[in-house]
Amino acid sequence: MSDAVKPMRVVVLISGSGSNLQALIDGVVSGDLPIEIAAVISNRPDVMGLTRASNAGIPTLVLDHKNYPTREAFDVELMQTIDAYTPGLVVLAGFMRILTPAFTEHYLGRMLNIHPSLLPKFQGLHTHQRAIEAGESHHGVSVHFVTAELDGGPVAIQARVPVLTSDDATLLAKRVQRQEHIIYPLAVKWFAEGKLKMTQGKAELDGELLAECGYQIDAPDA
After folding, report:
1. Is 115 annotated in the active site?
2. What helix, strand, coil percent values describe the chain, rounded to 5?
3. CATH number of residue 133's parent domain
4. Is residue 1 part of a domain?
């Protein structure tokens, strides 16, 4: 009998409730995700995401950014902490920090982020309200490779959600979040299986370069 393929080691960075972390944990438990979450690191103490990780038996660490004199000093310490776990992939799951170019370059092509908009639209914060105010017919969520440009790396996958006339930012956010919990584990699975890569500044799936919007799906339940 041949040895089973070793699951890819993944480090997850969080700042809050960790709902996308929970989606990844659930994927590991179900056997659908061929990864091992080696550690969960938060830049904020006492957040729900740390509890989720502890409940799943995953090592947790807190690196409070307030304890560092500069952004660069924090990122250097974070980089050393991550690398001690030798991950094949770093996953940002609600990690609310702007990362330095040195940090993003170190993990180029092996760090994913999820952003609640159809990138390149609505980079930054308050995306749901901005989509409503702009009169968008569709909104959604993107998983992308992380580069030095904030929310600007090549998109791997998007889920599109219709904007309803009855929507406010809270209602729209809930529908978008349901799709987050579907497409983030899927992107991580593709990466762990070697199907998803970043090639010459573009996302590649199964050997084919993806369009700017990545692999796009329309949410069936929105």
Report:
1. yes
2. 35, 25, 40
3. 3.40.50.170
4. no
